[in-house]
Amino acid sequence: MKESSSQARSTWSSRWAFILVTIGSSVGLGNIWKFPYMIGLQGGSAFVLVYLLCILLIAWPLFMAEILIGRRGGGNPVSAMATTLAECGASRFWRVLGWVGILSALVILSFYGVVAGWVVDYLCKAIVGVRVETALEAKRAFDTLLGNPLQLAFWHTVFMVLTVGVVARGVVSGIELANKLMMPGLFLILVGLVFWGAVAGDMPAALHFLFDVHFEAITPDVFLAAVGHAFFTLSLGMGAVMAYGSYLDKKTSIAGTSIWVVACDTLVGLLAGLAIFSLTFRYGLEPSEGPGLILQTLPLAFSNMPGGRVFGVLFFLLVTFAAWTSAISLLEPFVAWLIESFGLRRATAAWGTGVAVWLLGIGVCLSFNAWSEYTLFGNNLFDVLDIATSRFSMPLSGVAIAVYVGWVMGKRIVAEEMRLPHGIFSVWFAVVRTLVPVAIALVFLHAITG
Ligand code: TRP
């Protein structure tokens, strides 16, 4: 029965296709928008070092565990949980994990789409050649955008149509194709930008800022930010990785493929940081600008540097591609669930879900202007959705996935799915059972008490 239903589902056309789409999911606004500004806010190299450790010791092992559940279950996150828990005889309670994943992914998409909309707006401004001459002007331009609900809603709508359009076309002819077209472009542009950054910017200063070791700057807050970001950048805990893993064929090695994804994701973040900080330092701008780093600081650099217009267009095109392929992965888990549970046509499921997410996104657009006085503990809707997902559902799902794979599924099933040499398997399994849940739980407690 399980065999026949899994045969009816699509699978990626090759192992490389899986690697590419999963890189597409993980490389997103997180790498190019959030990672650099967090490095800037959290004191540079200390954050980078802790972040690399978190990726290696916590996020990567968990990433494999999430792929494992998806592939073993052979279905959308809800049914993958149901199938695997039936197989190992666990409590039905664990199904919650699938639900939390697919619903949180939609919530993330609602504000992710709004931020991606800002990027598309900046892309268009770069194309028509809008310049900013002073820091004040750059800030005003950004504030004007945030203050204009119609403009925000317009770009958010454009971005959502792009995202839904791809998911509606299907796993192979939509998602896989879009990634095959965009990801090589993304890498080429990024490498080009790093070169340009080395020529036109201050690369040595950027290298010092990112890689000089300052152990004294490592604080619990840096840890907290680093773990949270490691989760976000690898798309963990939200069913996205589980859903993509479910389209992976049985023969492919989970560990072998995941190395590529984790390495590329990390590399893209670091390269983007190098390119961005080279310019930031060359033009005497502030690295600790916060979320406005790429939207306020960089346009200033682009306006002042030789070839800045071309550089600006390419840069915002890069961010658009990155955000688009990630947004696709936020929509797919819920759409897969609708298709597999109710037999809906893919296009109906995708557009229907898209409309619901879009509506929530309109609320997010308004939370910056017309609705800005409606707050919860001082947070507008945008902040509330961000905090609810990144500080609560993401870490809680993370612990749950680790406990489920480490303690509930049973070693035999897990080993069968991982097919690793005994020694390596034992290390990974021990990490998933102990280090991962304990580390995330500590971070979570620190986040809610601190
Ligand atoms: N990883 C993406 C980024 O870095 C965002 C993303 C896509 C995501 N899918 C996700 C985050 C699922 C959490 C869960 O921008």
Task: Explain the overall architecture.
With 450 residues, the chain is mainly α. The protein has a single domain (15-449), classed as Amino acid/polyamine transporter I, CATH 1.20.1740. Helices cover 80% and strands 0% of the residues. The chain has 19 helices and no strands. α2 (15-26) packs across α9, α3 (29-41) packs antiparallel against α11 (220-233) and α4 (45-73) packs across α12. It is globular and about 65 Å long. Mean pLDDT is 91; it is low at 1-7. Residues 25-26, 28-31, 105, 108, 232-233, 235, 238, 240, 326, 329-330 line the site of tryptophan. The site of tryptophan has 16 residues, from α2, α3, α6, α11 and α15.
Topology:
Elements: H1 2-8, H2 15-26, H3 29-41, H4 45-73, H5 77-88, H6 95-128, H7 135-146, H8 149-169, H9 171-200, H10 203-211, H11 220-233, H12 240-246, H13 254-282, H14 293-304, H15 308-342, H16 346-366, H17 381-408, H18 411-418, H19 422-449
Counting DSSP E segments of at least 2 residues, the number of strands comes to: 0
CATH fold call? Amino acid/polyamine transporter I
Q: Which small-molecule ligands are present, each listed once?
A: tryptophan
Total count of domains: 1
Q: Could you give the order of the helices and strands?
A: HHHHHHHHHHHHHHHHHHH
Instruction: Tell me the name of the CATH class.
Output: Mainly Alpha
